[in-house]
Amino acid sequence: MPRVKSFAPSWLNEPSPGHKLFESSNDETKSSSLAYNKKPKSGPRRNIARRGTEVFVAVGKQIRWGDLVDLKESWETKQAHTGGVRFKKEPNDFEVYDEEAANGNSAPEGYRIIKTPVAEDIRQLVMSPNNDFLAVLTSHTVHICILPDSSHLNTHDTTPFKPKFYTLGPTTHVTSRSAVVSAIWHPLGVNGTALVTVTEDAVVRIWELSATDRWSFDAATLAIDLKRLADGTCVDQDFSASVSATNKAFSPDSFDMEVAAACFPAKNSGGWSPMTLWVAMTGGDVYALCPLLPKRWAPPPTLIPSLSVSIVSRVATTEDSPDVSYEDRLLAQQQLQWMSDLDNQEPKIVEAPGADGEVEVYSRPARPGIVPKLQGPFNFDLNPEDEQDDEVELKDIYVIGEKPNMSDLMMGEDEELAMDEEEENGLSLSIVCLLSTSGQVKICLATEGVEAEWLPSKIKSKLKPSSATARTQSLLTFQTFDTVKPAELTPDSWPMFSEDVTSKYSFYVTNPAGITLVNLEPWVSRLESELQGDSEAGADFRIDVLVQGHGSERERVFTQPRGMNVLSAPVVIRDQDIGHLLLSATHNQPIAIFFDTPELELAPITRDSPIIHEQVEIPEPEVVWHPRPVFHPSNVLVSNKNAVPAWVDLLKTGRRRPLLQQEIRLSMATLEVFTEGHKVASSEVFEIQNAVAELFRKCEALQFELRDQLIKAGEVKKRIDTITGDDLGDDDDDPISINELTRSRIDQAQRRQEELTSRMERIKKKLGRATTRDLSDKEKAWVEEVKGFENSILGSEVDTSPVDSKTRQPWKRFDEIKELSDSLLSQAERLQRRQREATEDGPASPAPGVRIPADIRKAKMAQVMSLLDRESMMVDAVKDRLERLTVG
């Protein structure tokens, strides 16, 4: 879990221009004072969207743009010139930027106001995948902003910027219709231009937008009424949403099918996940639509091949097995029909913006149907039995798709596709996270998976056997935990999920009590290893230990003071210039949290060392201080919001107007006026009392915190003095200098080295004495033989080895044999010469001596030569042995 490094920096606090991103506008204050008795409808609040280091913040009806890098640099530059912020307030200290903006000469860089055409307060900002569209949501309307380049916004112009806005569904998303609960950009839309809107009355619409075609913003390309789809029996029925806005009769589905939130998994998920829309109902039910595709969609390169492999294997399994049910066989045929329609298409190549290259665009298959089957409601296996009503009522849903299955896709191939480390170590199951009103998070696993399903055609629905039963799907409840204490619960709260940029298996939970970081990685890798492992022995025990273990990690990174404003869902930025930043906001203040993420650095590699050092993590120093969030006084103490004047104005124009011009009399009308006035004034005074009490408690706590900081600073000073040698001894002697400390440490090291050396020598001697023993007779004889050879070869003066007179040494025998060989060769030459002379002079005369036959001479010569070879081999062997002994 990342450690909190610091909270809101100076360049986001007053009087910096970064604080203007979050300040409440005058129009918002004025409208809230006029409508003192109106209570806004509860709903999700996602008022911050980001594009790189640029943030778009919705405040009331305005959108404020800011580049955090420019805001930080400009503020730090100003502080460097002015010497920092002074604590003593002077007339020009906190109004520098306002005066510069009024002069129109040097407006702060990185800040701009965007004017919007909305009529209500903005609830949500949703950025498109390619950062070129911004969906602006109120409670009932949706507007699309065509975002310009940052160079058009980052100017010194102080006038509000007016980009091009389009109203999405001018006759569909209006105040007379149902409220909009979610707007999600489809992960498979062409260049991120497909938007999916989900209304409270369970109607899903797909909009395929184009900046050059204004009619694409008027009508949805596909509209599905989930209430009709839930009761559908065949794919040929009409499931489109009703165009009538007057039919508001009560039905059980209007309560059971009230949508709380919807979401898509990430684009890089495996299987059918990128085209699966998960819908969470307020009553606690969860549904899924798969495949939900726009008319034109652009899949990732590996999506269609992986789906084709899984569909072919499914069809082969259903055909080979006679025990397959009718529903499974029909589903395999429908998926094969869908994939055949897709294979018959010729994809269109479209240029992708930026450096993404080109993408292949396909058309949505028309067979077996464009409207998928509504899967659900899912049953929850191992669900807690003691759930309360507020734990069942859902508010948000967050789905993490399964990892791509590349092993089946690349089976039989020589090469392997390169995958990220996170994708390789991911989970092969989809994780469904549900968030209830009470702040309880429920982690569920889609063990059965969600595949593409359609309703049967009208003909096949009639051929359906009567014994066939509907297939029930379920989610396995893996873990449940609370993020809010019972004392922190507030009425009409709307908790929200937010994704994290560091890992897809971590996310943030935002509620009125604070922001909590949840990390699922501790059990994801362990569960995946069990699922992919071949060993079944002890698997039940290991999974039981995994389930009963600590499970997910969670940490409250920010706690909101009780009674403060509602928090917006945060955005997480990880940039080299800014760092790891979590940014949220209240109605008038920023909430910024900086995390300290340790960076891995390479250890130095020397040329002489053949070992390559791996990455090592540099240890961090011990933390001696803990960051605290910046305290912001309640907005009641500084705002101009006052409901009493608005109530008086309303009284002057109401039916009690004559009472203001008469004397006060005891009557029911006067009692009603005083009672209503007491309610308005008491609510104002109550808020002021709470704000003042919170400020007083904070001032008291500040004294204790300051005392603790002084104590910790004294402890740190003592530790530093101890290290540097500046601390005093017990007798208050003079401080020891650094040179003396260094010299004493060197002397101690030398003495320690001498002790280690002497100890090593003693150990060597002990080992030598322990291993000494007498030589055996064979060893002694071998030593004497070696010495004799040494004396004979090297020519020692004294020959101490006893040599037998009968045995001659090999080299002496070798010399004698050489002499005999030379004499025999010379005799043979003389005989040949005489024979040659005799043949020349005449016929050979008989020799006076004994004649030797030729075969005997040849045999003798062969015997002599074999003896010579043998002796030469023996001499060579002796020489080699002596050389080895000498070297040893």
Automatic annotation (TrEMBL):
Tagged with keyword Repeat: no
Coiled coil: 739-773
GO biological process entries: mRNA export from nucleus; protein import into nucleus; ribosomal large subunit export from nucleus; ribosomal small subunit export from nucleus
Ranges of compositional bias, category Basic and acidic residues: 830-839
Subcellular location: Nucleus, Nuclear pore complex
Keyword annotations: Coiled coil, mRNA transport, Nuclear pore complex, Nucleus, Protein transport, Translocation, Transport
Disordered: annotated span: 1-46, 830-855
InterPro entries the UniProt entry points to: NUP88/NUP82 (IPR037700), WD40_repeat_dom_sf (IPR036322)
Alphabetized SUPFAM superfamilies for the sequence: WD40 repeat-like
This protein's GO CC annotations: nuclear pore
GO MF term set: structural constituent of nuclear pore
Signal peptide: none
Protein name: Nucleoporin NUP82
